[in-house]
Amino acid sequence: MDDSSQLLQAASDFVHYPGPHSDDSSRDFLNRFPLPVIINALQTQLDVPGLENTLVACLERLFNTKLGASLIPQYMPFVQVGLQADSQAVRSLACKTVTSLLENLDNDHKVAASACLIKDFNIYPLLLDCLINGNEQVAAVATDAIKKLAGFPEGMEIIFPSDKGDDTDLEIIASQCSSLGRVRVLALVVKLFSVSRSAASTIYSLNLLQLLEAEIRNADDTLVTLSVLELIYELAEIEHGTEFLSKTSIFQLLSSMISHNSMESILRSRAMMISGRLLSKDIIYSFTDEPCVKAVISSIDGRLQSLEASDRDECETALESLGHMGSSIQGATLLLSGSSPAARHVINAAFERQGPTGHGKQLAALHALGNISGETRSENNIILNAEEEENLRRLIYETASRSSKLTPSVAYFHSF
Q1: How many Cβ atoms sit within 10 Å of the Cβ of residue 363?
Q2: Which residues of the chain have pLDDT under 50?
Q3: Beta carbons of 362 and 307 less than 8 angstroms apart
Q4: Amino acid 408: pLDDT
Q5: What residues does each domain of the chain span?
Q6: Which of 57, 166, 390, 404 has the most crowded Cβ, counting Cβ within 10 A?
């Protein structure tokens, strides 16, 4: 087009149209401005103020319609070029276009055809490049597209080919990336892990979870380590994540981190929270050896013994973590077992008179004590066995006997 003003105005109207576009409105727009015209303008008229952003937004809305999505297979060369564009906005559009293509596959024939297109036009490696080298928005939409691809068996074959070691091998890519690139690759691993149990099994069998463990062992960069801990926290929240994480050395790593006095407090706190989340699930005890669980509890116990009065935040986190563990019957049993049970920290903090500055610590302890006592457990798991029940009662009475403001009976009543 010699004059882009008409296209710019029409595209702007299309973008700002309230509500979703119908196929009819999309068809009317394309009758006036066919896709080759729009793509050509996007590639050749970047000097027109506002044109790129408007056309990118226009094409994004267009490809989100059923009609627009049906046209994407004909314009895969545009998608291929767009994924390699200098413009981050165009790269973002190309990633979203791949997602739109994959969201509109309603039969096996379309899935197979789209998988062929993605392989023929080298789309997956280009998405990986967008993930690693794009800006934050491009990395996010590239991840979304890859995750959507993983939702199909044909897509999993593209992401995890049988010939391990090619240029899309995530382990190799992570080893060659900057720290930011590595975190993005690890975040992709977690996203793919969440797709299905089958995907999680593939990731585990390829030892990709070990990439996260390796980053925690290195712990050279606090920001990177914290980011990886956040990813492990996300894994712990995935339904099938508990089973696979329990097969790794994650508990040993978390215990070591919590016990490490020279470790940054924020890293120790996050390690405690992850431990609490994992051990709050009854199913974890079916996959994890008891010594591993005891080691985690012991590390938190030791940390609480060594904390100074000024370490209030870390102390509250430790108490909260014990409370999460105590919400499962097995966790509560372990917290109340032994000659010096870890639950004593919770009870001491719950009934200790600490003044205004200790309110957060006491509140965290009271919530934790409620969990250990069975407040949040299901009806079948509320009651502790006789030994743990007696240990709980003894700890509360011993704590109350040291207080001038509480009688044992009142203390025990307040714990439930």
Answers
A1: 15
A2: 408-416
A3: no
A4: 43
A5: 1-163, 248-415
A6: 57
Residue 273 CA: distances (Å) to CA of 44, 216, 245, 322: 52, 15, 15, 9
Under 8 Å between Cβ of 226 and 265? no
Q: How far apart are the C-alpha atoms of 314 and 274, rounded to whole Å? A: 14
- Candidates 175, 250, 169; CA nearest to 216 is 250
Q: What is the pTM assigned to this prediction?
A: 0.87
What CATH homologous superfamily does 1-163 map to?
Leucine-rich Repeat Variant (1.25.10.10)
Tokens 């990813």 found at = 231
Q: Are 192 and 147 in contact (CB under 8 A)?
A: yes
Question: How many residues in the chain?
Answer: 416
* Other CB atoms within 10 A of residue 405 CB: 9
Tokens of 252: 């040993």
Instruction: Count helices and strands (H / E) in the chain.
Output: 27, 0
Residue type, 82: G
Quote the CA–CA distance of 36 and 391 in Å, as a whole number: 76
CB count in 10 Å sphere of residue 396: 24
Distances (CA, A) of 129 to 1, 173, 310, 358: 32, 10, 46, 49
Measured CA to CA, the distance from residue 55 to residue 37 in angstroms comes to 11
| Fold match, 1-163 / 248-415 | yes
Q: Tokens 């896709």 label which residue? A: 35
- The DSSP code for 75 is G
- Helix (H) / strand (E) element for 280: namely none
Distance CA 274, CA 232 (A): 7
Residue with tokens 């995907």, as numbered in its chain: 199
Sign of CA dihedral 135, 137, 139, 141: negative
Q: Which fold has domain 248-415?
A: Leucine-rich Repeat Variant (1.25.10)
In the 8-state DSSP scheme, what is residue 288? S
Closest CA to 211 of 228, 236, 226: 228
